[in-house]
Amino acid sequence: MNLSENISGKVVVITGASSGLGESTARLLASKGANVVLGARREESLNKIAEEINEQGNGKAVYLKTDVTIKSDVQALINKAISEFGKLDVLLNNAGLMSIAPLSEVKVDEWERMIDINIKGVLYGIAAALPIFEKQESGHFINISSVAGIKVFSPGGTVYSGTKFAVRAISEGLRHEVGGKIRTTTIEPGAIDSELKYGSSHKESVDFVVDFYKQAIPADSVARAIAYAIEQPADVDINEIVLRPTLQEF
């Protein structure tokens, strides 16, 4: 059987789905017959993406305005998947914020925002989906970390890297705890073309990051890696995928 057929009919919840990696993944998986449940704060963008997916006539798309820093929002997004499609196969914890600045700038508000989105947002997703996966005795968590979760991104990426190291640690612990019937995949992308690079209020850091991201590859590159993990047979768990632009040294 063609492995891509393993995606058809699956119900996939995606956070941060209004642009970039989340949007690209939603479009790719829906083109392969998945039913996607889109969450993000920008409702107008979600509506447009869902309409375009539904017009294609393959997988279906629904959406719900979601702020991953609010636990009840994330729970409502998971509930939407169950109410619309009767099951949940995959949760893609994708929403993220990258605020790059030296620690000496003491941008505590941005540190807290990254912790709330990048770490607590993932935990809220796990908390909402895990009981469903355990009841079904099946499911797949896909958590987006970063190359910066393997090596500290410098200069200015100390806290961002801290949050992405945390995502890797949580993912690995989750795999140990629930593996057997529930799969866990961590994706660690390098420079991917998205809005992530504009997340800082520190001008010098933004200028550095924008220049660094000139080597970025399209978000579709990560979407294909996610599809690869999902389409494997149930007894194959792709635990970790690291991908970068060929030009990226870091």
TrEMBL record:
Keywords: Oxidoreductase. InterPro entries: KR_dom, NAD(P)-bd_dom_sf, Sc_DH/Rdtase_CS, SDR_fam. One of its GO terms (molecular function) is oxidoreductase activity, acting on the CH-OH group of donors, NAD or NADP as acceptor. Residues 10-195 form the Ketoreductase domain. It holds the Pfam family adh_short. The keyword Oxidoreductase applies. Belongs to the short-chain dehydrogenases/reductases (SDR) family. PANTHER family: DEHYDROGENASE/REDUCTASE SDR FAMILY MEMBER 11, DEHYDROGENASE_REDUCTASE SDR FAMILY MEMBER 11. This is Ketoreductase domain-containing protein. It comes from Epilithonimonas bovis DSM 19482. The lineage of its organism: Bacteria, Pseudomonadati, Bacteroidota, Flavobacteriia, Flavobacteriales.
